[in-house]
Design goal:
Number of domains: 2
Strand content: 35-45%
Number of strands: 7
Structural class: alpha+beta
Largest sheet: 7 strands, antiparallel
Oligomer: single chain
């Protein structure tokens, strides 16, 4: 009888794990599909914590205010994955939708989004 209960518990745990994993995978596939259809939003010049500079083309997934900074979750078209960027580390931002070059990126996000966040 005990082995029956253990078997049922194992099946239940496996089912819930599989269901949640499947939903996460489907959500990620949908996010990536939307990014590739939409194309890049911006070209950014970014400096990481070590001072290394990069130029990335990104499609913004979400923008969130965190203290005095903005946290941008975006699809990086060069790395083919979602990355997190801080607006204070972007030393140049070119908005490909508006054809506008931005030098003060944190001020631009504050002006564009105010105190609210953006989530696609």
């Amino acid at each position: 009888m005990t082995s029956l209960y253990l078997s049922l518990a194992f099946v239940a745990v496996f089912y819930f794990w599989y269901s949640s994993s499947r939903r996460k995978i489907q959500a990620r596939i949908e996010r990536v599909r939307r990014v590739h259809v939409q194309g890049p939003d911006a070209r950014i010049c970014y400096m990481n914590m070590k001072g290394k500079r990069y130029i990335w083309q990104i499609t913004i997934e979400s923008v969130t205010k965190k203290g005095q900074d903005w946290v941008v979750t975006a699809w990086c078209h060069e790395r083919n994955e979602f990355l997190i960027f801080y607006a204070s580390r972007m030393y140049e931002y070119f908005d490909l939708r508006r054809f506008q070059e931005i030098k003060n990126v944190p001020a631009y996000f504050t002006e564009r989004f105010g105190q609210k966040s953006l989530h696609h």
